[in-house]
Amino acid sequence: MTGEHPALALRGLAKTFDGKVAVAGVDLDVPAGSFYGLLGPNGAGKTTTLSMAVGLLRPDHGRAWVLGHDVWGDPVGAKRLLGVMPDGVRLFDRLTGAELLAYHGLLRGMDPAVVDQRAAELLDVLALTDAGRTLVVDYSAGMKKKIGLACALLHGPRLLVLDEPFEAVDPVSAALIRDILHRYVVGGGTVVFSSHVMEVVERLCSHVAILAGGTIKRVGGLDEVRGARSLEEVFVEVVGGRTATGEELSWLSR
Amino acid sequence: MAVPVTAAAEPDRQVSARHFVRLKLRVMGNNFRGQGWRIALFVAGVLVGLWFAAGGFLLLAAPGFAGEPRYALMTAAFGGGLLVLGWLLLPLVFFGVDETLDPARFALLPLSRRTLVGGLFAAALASVPVLTMLLATAGLVVTAGALGGWPAGLAATVGVLAGLLLCVAASRAVTSAFATMLRSRRVRDLAAVLLAVVAALLGPLQIVVLAAVQDADWDRLAGVAGVVGWTPFGAPWTVGVDVAEGRAWAVPVKLLITAVTIGVLLFWWSRSLESAMVGAAGAAPTKTRRAPTGGAVGQLFPKVLGWAGRDRFGALVARECRYWWRDARRRANLITIAVVGVFVPVMVNLGGPGFAASEQGVEFTGDSSPVLVSLSMLFVGVLASVTLANQFGFDGSAYAANVVAGVPGRLELRARMVAFSVYVVPMLGVVSVVIAVVLGEPGWIGMAAGALLAAYGAGLAINGYLSVLGAYSLPETSNPFAMNTGAGMAKSLLTLLSMVVSTAAAVPMVVAAALLGDAWLWLALPLGAAYGVGAALLGSYLAGDVLDRRQPELLATVTPRR
């Protein structure tokens, strides 16, 4: 489809905050047309990595390319092909859903008529039309995720980078988001998303990477990474979890 | 060992105010961690505070040093009263209130309202301004001690400490109540009107006071001071003088007045605190707005922006316009500009010369001069533009949307200036008309407007730069007066800096008013407007370049740390 370039390529991305290493050199190739899951426990560096990959956070070292465009050298070319839904970042939430979509569309240089038509369609599909003139700040958490996704999709990007798209989303909305993303990939798009919900990743992804302590621990096709076991087992083993059974916390039981 | 979970466990130790103070100091300390410039700003702020404290100390201690008992009561009553007034009004208008400990954070803890208010109050006392105040008001103790020996000094010490509590309680209660009011969109208009009325009262009041000063002899002033001494504004500060002058019986009464006032203020604060906590924890207003009309793009653009193109620039302007009205924090700034912008020039131009013109008293005579008008207009223009000094801080992490879309810096800054001007330029027009009419010099409208526009444009340019280089994050609370401790210092100093530079940039307008005489009355508007627009364009051109290189860094600085 898009030829020889991977949809997203990261080389040696690293970031240190106040002497604390958040990401310690991440290399990653996301093939075009793949559905890529970035797994990791809390604090593994998922958000930091994705922020550096899309141009929101300047890396200390390393580079990132979106379909061959250098994110830091040719930001205009890269950002045109890119749709992003960051996590833990506010939207311009004193706008209504429709206003927010119009803002994003025009900001991307789209034709106003196209913006109108796509915004109406997206609001309809995501069941946000009923919200009417409610401001996004008054939306529920799930609705905020959906409008965030709509903003990222509006300009028809070739690569979609989503940070925790399924967090705080109810099962109905989650199924809807899954369907939309699935259709997007079937239509030739590429999705990279971070999550720590194994079940979702196993159902959706063609490729996964497990990130822990700021480095990639496992990477490859889904079957390649999990082998004969379940993804959760592999994940817990790689990350090195601990189970609380014993004398500690005994005051929790009566 | 196994305790039934239904029975609330008795806490081993009571939570006391000490814990809140320690928590606040710890939060302040952690804010400084690894941020050299913040420490530097903090130290600079402390030094400025000490300088003011020393000045205040000398002023309040002067009657004691000079051995002039007849000024002692006046200094204590008026000086102390002004301090209380300052604590009451300044946080509302200008500085904001330190919310290092956000009350909403304590909503889930099993703390009684009494504990919470006591703790937050104690934490509020542990701040630089309070220490500054303590140093300054120590002057009253010196005066009382010099005039009435140690009993008077002792009474003054107790009074000063009580007065300090009163000041802090007043500022907390008022800002908290105001924040609650502004948060509710329904009451916002009422809040605007209230603020305007308060400010409107300041003008006439000042004129009356000035008139009184002019033809009053010292006895009458002393009488007024005596009355003020019996109000909560003056009561705590005057007890020392009372002892020195042989009215020891007044001390318990005045301290009682102060204590009751503090009690009432704390009660008021605790009431609004509760609603602030609950409000922050959820309960979104689920009122149904009328059904949307037209397409998404049509909804984004307010009616006044019918002229704007439906493109990137138009979208940025439209979004900013919506935000200046819908964001409580920004709206509070707009209201401040409107109120201060009208009343400060009126007061300067009517009240200022009133000092010199001794006979005319209260009459509204045009004592002003073109230079004075231009100067006060400069102040208003600069004050309006300084609101943009942290324009990206208002956005917070939402600014990420513009970074992801790769908005060019120059376009971004120009759009923000235009959107803000949609509100401010009409206001400035009203200010120049009002000032000219009040002064009885309709011919000065052009000159006033010219000076306003020049100062405003120059201010936009300076603050465009400042907003890119000196941005800081604002806490994500709905309290429009809230800010972080470290940022409090930063805000005051940067604001001051930008006002000085902007004023300097617009001084040619005043020089021209002084030199050119009547010709300037006609030239001021076109020249001033051209100067302002030119400066703003140049500023956005140069600062936009910087913004292009610093977008991710800017996003990082305005994103609140969690």
From TrEMBL, chain A:
Q: Please, one GO biological process term?
A: response to antibiotic
Name the domain of life.
Answer: Bacteria
Keywords for this protein = Antibiotic resistance, ATP-binding, Nucleotide-binding, Transport
Domain (ABC transporter): give its ranges. Answer: 8-238
Enumerate the InterPro entries for this protein: AAA+_ATPase (IPR003593), ABC_transporter-like_ATP-bd (IPR003439), ABC_transporter-like_CS (IPR017871), ABC_transporter_ATP-binding (IPR050763), P-loop_NTPase (IPR027417)
Q: What organism is this sequence from?
A: Micromonospora halophytica
Localization in the cell: Cell membrane
**GO molecular function terms attached to this record:** ATP binding; ATP hydrolysis activity
Major location, coarse class?
Answer: membrane
Looking at the Swiss-Prot or TrEMBL record, what is one Pfam family this protein matches? Answer: ABC_tran
> GO CC terms on record?
plasma membrane
Per the record, membrane topology reads:
Peripheral membrane protein
Q: What is this protein called?
A: ABC-2 type transport system ATP-binding protein
Automatic annotation (TrEMBL), chain B:
Mind telling me which residue stretches traverse the membrane in this protein?
A: 39-65, 71-95, 116-142, 148-169, 190-213, 249-269, 332-351, 371-389, 418-439, 445-472, 493-514, 520-543
Keywords from UniProt, A to Z, are: Membrane, Transmembrane, Transmembrane helix
Name the UniProt record assigns to this protein: ABC-2 type transport system permease protein
